[in-house]
């Protein structure tokens, strides 16, 4: 099987590409940051370049596409909404159009748990409709648009797709803006760890290795046309995460601060997110808990320091 990974030079994309490669499949990476030194062959191309996308798809003929390219930093999206719409919405439309034209059998789309903010209930499953009023953040709007585009291409062009709505991801290669990375780096420097607000925001942190496995399994026939909720094995607050990291470093200080640029971000509140469907259909469940994930990440950081 041939798998094309858009955004395959990024944090999550690299792990997804590696998982398909380990499964014995041929991998091609498409990413503006791709270089000849990357682990997998590819091309430095933007997903908004529709003409080039169609040429690549027609020439290489992928069987499946893992679509992860786009703007994933919510604060960058807030600052540059037009660029975000271009990357996340126009880019997704261009990928789906190229896939439909070249006979791709499945597109697995990187969605987000942020869409839960556009749902009126606290018990969220994959059939819950979006609120017409939206959810108060440009990033959420782009994620909803990606799901709607997938539905439209299925109805109008018969293109099979699968959407993975996943919770915040961490693990090897994570970018500095992610809270787990920010806490670890701050703790390694002696602190303090900065928690925005009261620290009661709840998150189900998902390890990137578990997410890559979900992308791999989402190519199964049963996943065609489906949306799946993915979460880490436990829900903790950002305050609890800060204290876990602090303890790993012998108790470095933790401080709280207000940050206006974080307005409109994901709020779990007391929501229950059902992951029953992905367990039933794909036999997927997260295996790496936050404590194990943090210990592994800390060990990797220390190895890097020791290596110079």
TrEMBL record:
Keywords: Isomerase. InterPro entries: Epimerase_deHydtase, NAD(P)-bd_dom_sf. Residues 4-230 form the NAD-dependent epimerase/dehydratase domain. Gene3D superfamilies: NAD(P)-binding Rossmann-like Domain (3.40.50.720). GO terms for molecular function: UDP-glucose 4-epimerase activity. Its EC number is 5.1.3.2. Belongs to the NAD(P)-dependent epimerase/dehydratase family. PANTHER family: DTDP-D-GLUCOSE 4,6-DEHYDRATASE-RELATED (PTHR43000). This is UDP-glucose 4-epimerase.
């Amino acid at each position: 099987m041939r798998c094309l990974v858009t955004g395959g030079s990024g944090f999550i994309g690299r792990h997804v590409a590696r998982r398909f490669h380990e499964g014995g499949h041929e991998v091609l990476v498409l990413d503006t940051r791709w270089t000849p030194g990357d682990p997998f062959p590819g091309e430095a191309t933007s997903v908004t370049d529709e003409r080039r996308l169609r040429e690549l798809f027609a020439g290489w003929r992928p069987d499946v596409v893992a679509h992860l390219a786009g703007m994933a930093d919510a604060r960058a999206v807030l600052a540059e909404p037009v660029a975000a719409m271009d990357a996340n919405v126009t880019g997704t439309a261009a990928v789906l159009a190229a896939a439909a034209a070249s006979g791709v059998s499945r597109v697995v789309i990187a969605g987000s748990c942020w869409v839960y903010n556009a749902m009126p209930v606290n018990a969220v499953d994959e059939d819950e409709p979006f609120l017409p009023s939206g959810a108060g953040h440009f990033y959420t709007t782009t994620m909803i648009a990606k799901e709607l585009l997938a539905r439209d291409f299925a109805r109008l062009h018969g293109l099979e797709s699968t959407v993975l709505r996943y919770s915040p991801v961490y693990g090897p290669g994570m970018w500095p803006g992610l809270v787990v990375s920010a806490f670890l780096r701050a703790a390694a420097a002696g602190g303090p760890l900065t928690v925005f607000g009261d620290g009661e925001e709840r998150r189900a942190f998902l390890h990137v290795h578990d997410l890559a496995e979900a992308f791999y399994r989402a190519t199964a026939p049963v996943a065609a046309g489906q949306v799946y909720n993915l979460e880490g094995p436990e829900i903790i607050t950002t305050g609890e995460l800060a204290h876990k990291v602090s303890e790993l470093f012998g108790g470095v200080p933790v401080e709280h601060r207000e940050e206006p640029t974080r307005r409109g971000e994901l709020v779990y509140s007391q929501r229950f997110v059902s992951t029953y469907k992905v367990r039933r259909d794909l036999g997927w469940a997260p295996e790496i808990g936050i404590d194990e994930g943090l210990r592994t990440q800390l060990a990797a950081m220390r190895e890097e320091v020791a290596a110079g």
